[in-house]
């Protein structure tokens, strides 16, 4: 932590997809000239639909629906993204909402669907403006934050005056919060320890709960591939971290113990990890998946794209060097401050 008053607001939307007003969306589409075909498609889905509630076999009087995107409709995520676009534009352009500087890059907002992170460098001046914008946007669109679950995370120690101000956010002084299912500490060096050990503990508990299931070893392999492995894959893809060898060995040991129900393995795990055409069962190799996830980031650095990482932010974090220079530099040539940053240094492994 530093002496700054920088602040992160981790926003929790209150019934996000259910609150968006259809009249607001219709006005938005017309204002941005989406054209008659798109408007007709929208009206076909959202023009005065009605619903009834069935209780004990009796139907209520039909009532009109006025808000909310349809569940399961492939158009719903796109409509929700469009609905939030004006709010995000305000966050990006309003002079009273200054973001956090990372090198030459200013970071103000990160958004994925209804998961929003706001970065404020002068929160004493920005918070009143922010609350005004959120209130006005709620009245216009129906979008509303759940302030009981919205967290204010101070990045520095100079935030005492902020807690005394009237604001509806919950203050998180632990410095760790969850975003997109991943724990984010304010001290980036702790990124590994706050995510990976708990993940391995959850995996162990999962296998323990399955231990007495009447499954063959083929069924247990299928259960690993269909249920256990996806729970590992998501955080591995989200976190730009190279797993420690002991943790990979621990995961593979859990796989082996579960497959053979605690008994002596009759087939080595490395053989089960071979593809089907080589006599294996295509069981996942965690090291290969981990390295492949990191290579996606390196590929973005090489191609200067941002499919899996924000290249502009990575360049700012590695200034005065660059991500590609770090990849091609000997260890002795990398500044210590960059060497201690796991988000950048992992790419060299």
TrEMBL record:
Pfam families: RVT_1. PROSITE patterns: RT_POL. It comes from the Eukaryota. SUPFAM superfamilies: DNA/RNA polymerases (SSF56672). Residues 1-184 form the Reverse transcriptase domain. This is Reverse transcriptase domain-containing protein.
